[in-house]
Amino acid sequence: MAARGGSYVATQVNTAVGVSGGATAAVAAPDKWTRTSVGIVGLCFLVYVFDIYETTTFQVALPAILTDFNISRLDAGSVLVVINWTSRVAGLILVPFADIYGRRLVLAAGVLGYSVLTGLTGLSQNWVQFSIAAIVTRFPTTAANFPTSIMATESAPASGRALAQGIQASGYSLGYVLVALASVFLLPTLGWRYMYFLGILPAILVFFILRNLPESRHFTKVKEKQLAEGKKSNVLVVYWSIVRRYPVEVAKGSFVTFCYGFWSGFGSWAPLYLSTERGLGAQTTGTWLAIWWFVAMFGTVGGGWLAQRFGRRRTNVTLVLVTVPIFAIYGLLQDQTALFLAGLVLCSLFLAPFGQGTWGSVQELFPTEVRATGFATSNFIGGSLSTFQALIPGLMPSVAASFPIFAGGYALLAIAFFLLKETLKSDLMQSVGEHAGDVKAKPA
């Protein structure tokens, strides 16, 4: 892209129209994809790919790590609880800065941070060192992955928001594929440490982010309005706005993220289950995972298309109800073909409601002025509550026995999605005081 920094904003942001109460009407997006919007979503997709490479390396390499450090499933589950909880805290502390200093700067800092720390994790000499490195790395990874989703949301045309969210979130699948392939080629030869060493490479993206990625036009318009009014934002002011004006939205968003967290009962533990309890070994498990998550990439984009076509509520409730019974019986399957096909379907079904649903719908509950903070707050509350589910496999006699419990928790997601307002037919809100459904979409 030829545009640099915020130059795109000067020519692309439409003039806001004042509304009652001092709020600012939505910054109307051109109802079509542009070269710039496609470039933003594409770069956010790449950032998320490498972000997920780091966050899923532990899961895929877990059998080798357990053996190397001679630890139990309960030990690993305990660290996963801390890691996941740390991600929520990191979001609460760092992501609000995206509402103050911009999405682009926070994103670039996050990518640089997790690239360096991921590489250093591979140097760990014992379980304590590894645990500390894995926990600390979650600060920059969270600082990077939340803004990628928000920027994709804010750059898309009104008629393609869910699709943009699906495309950006499909980076999860490709990131997992890269980890799975690394496990196939590196684990048997060089070991799990080299999977972490590869995590240094995303630092290259920082150059492209700072040079080519324009700031969100929605964020820029809000900052221009604040400057004109002489308003100064800080983290405390932003959080106070969330607590005072959006308690219901935070509660609903927290419920969504809490329920969705139960999917990780499969995402985090399926590699160990297949490799050990079903005796597939690291190479076969890695190959299966690579195929599953590659296909799931299209499932994530498809989920965005379905939501754009039929609405989020109808799409996501249906997806959850189809997923639950397959999830619940997965541990009972014995035949390898059945295990493979059921896992293939589950991966796509889990990620279809992710980008456009769990993240996209919660983000759109809040206006641009506090969107990152509102999303981080909801994710902190719901995600913190769901992190303790990582202990379930360690407390059960086997990983297989834990799948029905995870499925029961995931079933609640259908209720959570049903409670949300449909926002895809509305423009994005801009200022504190507006609520979901207040801003109507303008005809193309």
What is the rounded distance between the termini?
25 Å
Main sheet properties: none
By secondary-structure content and strand pairing, the structural class works out as: mainly alpha
Unreliable stretches covering 5 or more consecutive residues: 1-29
CA-based shape: globular
Task: Please trace the helix and strand order, writing H or E for each element.
Answer: HHHHHHHHHHHHHHHHHHHHHH
Q: Per CATH, what is the topology?
A: Growth Hormone, Chain: A
Count the helices. How many? 22
Protein architecture, described:
- It is a single chain.
- This protein is mainly α and 444 residues long.
- The protein has a single domain (30-220, 243-418), classed as MFS general substrate transporter like domains (Growth Hormone, Chain: A, Up-down Bundle).
- It contains 22 helices and no strands.
- It has helices spanning 7-12, 35-60, 62-69, 73-94, 103-121, 127-155, 161-169, 171-186, 193-197, 205-212, 217-229, 235-245, 247-260, 264-267, 270-277, 281-310, 312-329, 336-351, 354-363, 371-386, 392-395, 403-418.
- Helix 2 crosses helix 8, helix 6 (127-155) packs antiparallel against helix 7 and helix 15 packs antiparallel against helix 16 (281-310).
- Residues 1-29 have low confidence and may be disordered.
